Amino acid sequence: MSNSIERFDQLALSTPLLQALEALGYETPSPIQAACIPHLLAGDDLLGEAQTGTGKTAAFALPLLQRIEVADKRPQVLVLTPTRELAIQVAEAFQSYARNLAGFHVLPVYGGQSMVVQLRALSRGPQVIVGTPGRIMDHLERKSLTLAGLRTLVLDEADEMLRMGFIDDVEWILEHTPAERQTALFSATMPEPIRRVAKKYMREPREIKIKNSTATVTAIRQRYWQVSGLHKLDALTRILEVEEDFDAALVFVRTKTATVELAEKLEARGYAAAALNGDMVQGLRERVVEQLKNKALDIVIATDVAARGLDVSRISHVINYDIPYDSEAYIHRIGRTGRAGRTGNAILFVAPREMRMLRTIERATRSPIEPMQLPSKEMVANRRVAQFKQQVMDTIATQELEFFENVVRQLMQEQNLGARDVAAALVYLAQAERPLQIEEKYEKPEKFSKPEKSEKFDKADKFEKFEKPAAGRKQITKPVKSAKGAGGTVGNSGVWDPTGPRQRYRLDAGRNHGVTPKDIVGAIANEAGIESRYIGQIDLFDDFSTVELPTLPEDTLQLLQKTRLRGRPMDIAVDDSSATERPAHKKFGRSDAGERPPRVPRSPQTSVSPWADKPQKPYKSSKPPFDKKPSFDKKPPFDKKPFKKKASPGSAH
């Protein structure tokens, strides 16, 4: 049956889901999707054997979304995943597919996230819960999560949960679910313990096995850059400038809007770039492709759908600006380069939380993807100088310069200048739009650090408890009070002092995502244990925000990087970007993108409220300073009695 299915509208999916798939660029169902969706829509139990990256998330998410009753605020679908990274990815996929379902909510639940935040989110009534076994068990024991209305349970990557020692926890959860539930189990392999669980808890499951047919692309050099420090746009421009064998590039993003935005930003930086997406009329799309072929364009920013069938031999680089949803999409993307017997280059931008998908792609392509260092500011400057020198030599060889030589000679005689002075001034004027010497603030030294394996954290998920840990359980981080009375975090570095040096940080969420200063303060205060009075100036921009904080220890920074703002990962990092790269900021009345006014470090006692433009009253503690004892020398007013301490019930008289 799956062999005859070529479109999603042949799978009896609802119109809102089909519209979401079209917006995401999905055209043809993968084999696992075509095979699983009909059975899950019919309510059958399912036992699916398929490699990660074959599109199985959509295979179970789409039919389960169609069966969701949005008016019912009880959890109707529970998805168990072995790691917190996968839980976030699956939850994001549900949210993407359900973009047209009003009133739908999905909640990722995993260890390391604030229990208070999770309890608050659970009270809102999400219909889908995606979580790791350890934290799901915690909520079931607390009675904060009830599964009385559960209709479907999905075990994703069951073999990974077995390998990580979660299979007993999975069985415990299964025993606390309604007997009438639908169960779907997906695994890359089917070892005997997995089959035993399937036989015990599933009812006549339909078995589906999909072979992985993807192969290695041998003619393409594959590299990845782990996103950190610099904004992705700055990293992209560095790569485009320094790559030696660069001819033309195809840059992939996830959304149609992103193609236009990125193309405009690259054009503003002097690149011949254009967007290519499904919203463009056919004539315009054909014109963009023709301009790429005849070298009128060097860079095309495209979505997966728009680039299908694109065959331009001069494409030397494919850059995955946004990581694809599955490995098959990645293989289709990089297949646009390395054609006609030429070698190609594929570069992948990977956020820390997306490292799992990187490993999946490596397994699917059966080839390692090597890490790359971003070009340094010296490399970019040397490249620009070399190009400028070549332009000068070409001009000398091809242009008639007698008139200009007379102008230079007159200038030297009139102003008593040397040839070097005039030449240096002319070089300065010529490079004003594209400086040869990179400013220091444009750069941030990039150091590649090998990411820790997710198992190091996820094994602790099943032991983590919010309050008093039970026997055998331990806490990874714990909010404490520092010597100054402010919240801190205990990690490998000991007690952190919030009154120390301050640093400006950049968050990957801004006005366009609905983020407010109150959201930023709440997220940082809840996750890092930092009191709001130690959170400094907050600036909101369209696509990102900046906040001034005490210099954060590494463990706290890693924790905040996974925190979410309005459904988006915070991705917090030290802000070393240039003020000239930022959009205008209305708060300071700037109409241009000039230099940011100098900041004066705030005292915690005279903080400015992040959600109000007017200064607040100075902070006054209700407690006396640590180095002073309360004084009662002054007599109380005549209409008040002197303070008298009440004796405690157990004190001696």
Q: What would your notes on this structure say?
A:
Keywords: ATP-binding, Cytoplasm, Helicase, Hydrolase, Nucleotide-binding, RNA-binding, Stress response. It is a single chain. By secondary structure, this protein is an alpha/beta fold. The chain has four domains: 208 residues, P-loop containing nucleotide triphosphate hydrolases (Rossmann fold), CATH 3.40.50; 157 residues, Rossmann fold, CATH 3.40.50; 65 residues, no CATH class; 122 residues, Alpha-Beta Plaits (2-Layer Sandwich). It is 34% helix and 14% strand. It has 21 helices and 22 strands. A seven-stranded parallel sheet has the order 3-4-2-5-6-1-7, with helices on both faces. Helix 5 links the parallel strand 3 and strand 4. The radius of gyration is 30 Å and the shape is globular.
Helix/strand-derived category reads alpha/beta
Beta-strand share of residues:
5-15%
Task: Please tell me how large the radius of gyration is.
Answer: 30 Å
Q: CATH-wise, what's the superfamily of the largest domain?
A: P-loop containing nucleotide triphosphate hydrolases
Q: Helix proportion of residues, in percent?
A: 25-40%
Mean pLDDT: 76
What would the CATH topology of the largest domain be?
A: Rossmann fold
Main pleated-sheet profile: 7 strands, parallel
Q: Just give the CATH class of the largest domain.
A: Alpha Beta
Protein name: ATP-dependent RNA helicase DeaD
Keywords: ATP-binding, Cytoplasm, Helicase, Hydrolase, Nucleotide-binding, RNA-binding, Stress response
Function: DEAD-box RNA helicase involved in various cellular processes at low temperature, including ribosome biogenesis, mRNA degradation and translation initiation.
EC number: 3.6.4.13
